[in-house]
């Protein structure tokens, strides 16, 4: 072991033929304890620990019956859902292929496609009580464009959650740069009893990602009108 506590064999010895950013990424992966732990415990992604952390703090998966996983690939979050809430029906969607997970219906589809919301809700036998989104737009390197594209995904995920969640349900989404934009936050606060932001310990310190956690869905206005 070196004085830094890292195994020197796991350091990259040569950068030949690799760009500086890919060397940095690979080096970070090889030295990341969460990557090692994910591999050892059979999670498909280190992201699994973020949902584990968020669940420990907010009790999201306790009693969950129907869960929608937006941006499911490679499947770490859905694995966590199935482990912590084995009775839950899960449906997920991603642009990328995801290897099958027992008990999970998976769509390889753009969540922004018109037919996506219907496909997701049709796969469940009732309204979801939890919608989780770890979606992130592929970055193009132009800061403003990247921010807008990711916010577009979050906004659509919020709309979907508000249209589909069962009363009392919860919504979790990855957001960037410290939190949710003003207008989106107003919508969330109007529709949920509590809205909080958290950065799980497993989220990389140098990443600007945060998560918004909205719990206690108040129900759709049209439903409330029907009930009265
Ligand atoms: C950080 S990864 C999700 C990791 C996942 N939570 C896990 O634990 O394995 C983000 C995913 O969002 C997906 N994504 C981005 N935009 C999307 C879109 N418009 N529709 C569906 N998936 C999308 C990406 O393809 C990527 O797989």
TrEMBL record:
<keyword id="KW-0808">Transferase</keyword>
<dbReference type="GO" id="GO:0008650">
    <property type="term" value="F:rRNA (uridine-2'-O-)-methyltransferase activity"/>
</dbReference>
<dbReference type="InterPro" id="IPR029063">
    <property type="entry name" value="SAM-dependent_MTases_sf"/>
</dbReference>
<feature type="region of interest" description="Disordered">
    <location>
        <begin position="1"/>
        <end position="20"/>
    </location>
</feature>
<feature type="binding site">
    <location>
        <position position="75"/>
    </location>
    <ligand>
        <name>S-adenosyl-L-methionine</name>
    </ligand>
</feature>
<comment type="function">
    <text>Specifically methylates the uridine in position 2552 of 23S rRNA at the 2'-O position of the ribose in the fully assembled 50S ribosomal subunit.</text>
</comment>
<feature type="active site" description="Proton acceptor">
    <location>
        <position position="174"/>
    </location>
</feature>
<feature type="binding site">
    <location>
        <position position="110"/>
    </location>
    <ligand>
        <name>S-adenosyl-L-methionine</name>
    </ligand>
</feature>
<dbReference type="Pfam" id="PF01728">
    <property type="entry name" value="FtsJ"/>
</dbReference>
<comment type="similarity">
    <text>Belongs to the class I-like SAM-binding methyltransferase superfamily. RNA methyltransferase RlmE family.</text>
</comment>
<feature type="domain" description="Ribosomal RNA methyltransferase FtsJ">
    <location>
        <begin position="43"/>
        <end position="217"/>
    </location>
</feature>
<feature type="binding site">
    <location>
        <position position="134"/>
    </location>
    <ligand>
        <name>S-adenosyl-L-methionine</name>
    </ligand>
</feature>
<dbReference type="GO" id="GO:0005737">
    <property type="term" value="C:cytoplasm"/>
</dbReference>
<feature type="binding site">
    <location>
        <position position="94"/>
    </location>
    <ligand>
        <name>S-adenosyl-L-methionine</name>
    </ligand>
</feature>
<feature type="binding site">
    <location>
        <position position="77"/>
    </location>
    <ligand>
        <name>S-adenosyl-L-methionine</name>
    </ligand>
</feature>
<keyword id="KW-0949">S-adenosyl-L-methionine</keyword>
<keyword id="KW-0489">Methyltransferase</keyword>
<dbReference type="InterPro" id="IPR015507">
    <property type="entry name" value="rRNA-MeTfrase_E"/>
</dbReference>
<protein>
    <recommendedName>
        <fullName>Ribosomal RNA large subunit methyltransferase E</fullName>
        <ecNumber>2.1.1.166</ecNumber>
    </recommendedName>
</protein>
<dbReference type="InterPro" id="IPR050082">
    <property type="entry name" value="RNA_methyltr_RlmE"/>
</dbReference>
<keyword id="KW-0698">rRNA processing</keyword>
<dbReference type="InterPro" id="IPR002877">
    <property type="entry name" value="RNA_MeTrfase_FtsJ_dom"/>
</dbReference>
<keyword id="KW-0963">Cytoplasm</keyword>
